[in-house]
Amino acid sequence: MMDSSAEKLLAADSTRMHFARLSMQYYVMGRAAALHHQMPILGNHLHHAVEFALKAALAYQVDIGAMKKKLSHHLPKIWDTFLALNPNLDGTEHAGSIKRLHSFEELRYPDSMVEKGRDDPVCDVSPRGRVDAGRKHVQSRPPLSTCP
Fold first, then answer.
1. Which DSSP category does 129 fall into?
2. I need a labelling partner for 89 at 20 to 30 A (CA). Which of 22, 117, 128, 132 fits?
3. Quick check: 129 and 13 in contact, CB under 8 A?
4. pLDDT at 104
5. Which of 47, 60, 45 is nearest to 9 (CA)?
6. Residues 62-89: pLDDT tens digits?
7. What burial letters (b/e) apply to 106-134, b meaning 16+ CB within 10 Å?
8. What are the C-alpha distances in Å from 126 to residues 121, 122, 134, 142?
């Protein structure tokens, strides 16, 4: 029979693996959506990818019940908790991305999308090159150059 601390560690391992697996799947789907210009779904998928990656990183520090109750799907709260529990990390570089991705949380309730519209890109998804009207190849930025 396992003691309580071993059971908690095993539960945290399981939680971490579950979140990591989901994070990778959402990330792949978000990148695929970006390649196919599927707005606003790409933002929603990338929001979930980052949310689950952070929750995987927090699995040993925050139990799943507290994640559900206190953090929910609120990316800025999850990010702030992650930074507070890992004070050696500087989160300023990613703060803007967190804020932009969190704006896609409203997709759960489309009323604001209907009122405001929602088609602004989360990142540059321009093609590698394009053909102008004279059928000459024009070089543009690489795709996904500003994606998380």
1. E
2. 22
3. no
4. 84
5. 60
6. 999 999 999 999 999 999 999 999 999 9
7. eeeeeeeeeeeebeebbbebbeeeeeeee
8. 11, 12, 20, 7
